[in-house]
Amino acid sequence: MKWLLMVAAVFALSASAADVSGTWKGTADTPNGKSERTFVFKVDGSKVTGETTSQMMGKSTIMDGKLDGDKLTFSITIKFQDQEIKLNYTGKVGDDAIKFHVESADGQLTLDYDAKKVS
Q1: What percent of the chain has pLDDT over 90?
Q2: Mean pLDDT over all residues of the chain?
Q3: Domain 18-117, what fold?
Q4: By the 8 A CB rule, do 111 and 34 touch?
């Protein structure tokens, strides 16, 4: 019985979601230089909400946010030259960093952000 409880405890610890609540600052290398973006995440169970802001694109609401272990996914919509573009984020969460891969819905735009927790 003790063996079964220990296995269950280890499984529960390994399956728990990473803590992404709070503010994160990310940078990405683009053809036009570095791009910076701030992410503010709120977590309720596996659901992630919040907003993200960049100087170039302004503020966007986080939609369809999900946290599954160390995998964070969400989307935002930005406006660029009078066009709305949906960006899909996939992130791998570490202790104090998230590595994001970003792709537009049509697949024509991709970026990789490295984000660090600031609060």
Answers
A1: 67
A2: 87
A3: Lipocalin (2.40.128)
A4: no
